[in-house]
């Protein structure tokens, strides 16, 4: 498949992820008003839990000060630019879609940082076991897209590529 088409697939994936992320956050904030409700138990494995994440993944770099959201947004946008370069060079649909998902998720979280000074997190999965409650971090659609994209890229990198034939 030609690289222009792969780039288009990646950009479309980014737009779908960005749209789904921002729509879900709008619904959580404006329709459901989760900041007021704080938490809704959906079932025994899943809650909607309002968290304003001022750091990055898993709350890392949370204490960078009042300018942290601008610093983290700038870093994320630099990563998105690098992903754009990688996307233009991608040679498979799977890689292009994964890069697009990562970029769309990153832009979604940048929008939150610039609008709110923090990322809107609200998805909370957990399981009760004999060892107690195993609880995942609270995350959002953008985070899920980023993690899935990275995992797919990591798995894809483990498959050998057919050698390119000389022109």
Describe this entry's structure for a reader.
The chain has 167 residues and is an alpha+beta fold. The protein has one domain. The protein contains five helices and four strands. The chain has a four-stranded antiparallel sheet with strand order 1-2-3-4. It starts with a helix and ends in an 11-residue tail after the last helix. 31% of the residues are buried. The model has no long low-confidence stretch (mean pLDDT 88).
Key attributes of the depicted protein:
alpha+beta; 4 strands
Sequence stretches where pLDDT stays below 50 over 5 or more residues: none
What is the first-to-last residue Cα distance? Answer: 16 Å
Secondary structure tally, helices: 5
Radius of gyration from CA coordinates: 18 Å
The total count of strands amounts to 4
Order of helices and strands: HHEEHHEEH
Q: From the helix content, strand content and strand pairing, which structural class follows?
A: alpha+beta
Strand order of the largest sheet: 1-2-3-4
Strand percent estimate: 15-25%
């Amino acid at each position: 498949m030609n690289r222009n088409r792969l780039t288009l697939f990646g950009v479309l994936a980014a737009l779908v992820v960005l749209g789904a992320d921002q729509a879900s956050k709008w619904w959580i904030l404006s329709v459901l008003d989760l900041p007021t409700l704080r938490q809704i138990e959906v079932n025994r494995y899943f809650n909607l839990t309002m968290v304003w994440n001022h750091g990055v993944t898993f709350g890392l770099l949370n204490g960078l000060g009042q300018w942290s959201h601008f610093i983290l947004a700038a870093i994320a946008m630099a990563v998105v630019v690098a992903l754009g370069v990688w996307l233009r060079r991608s040679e498979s649909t799977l890689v292009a879609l994964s890069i697009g998902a990562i970029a769309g998720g990153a832009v979604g979280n940048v929008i939150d940082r610039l609008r709110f000074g923090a990322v809107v997190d609200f998805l909370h999965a957990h399981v009760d076991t004999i060892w107690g409650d195993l609880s995942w971090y609270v995350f959002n659609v953008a985070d899920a897209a980023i993690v899935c994209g990275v995992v797919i890229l990591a798995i894809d990198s483990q498959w050998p590529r057919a050698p390119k034939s000389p022109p």
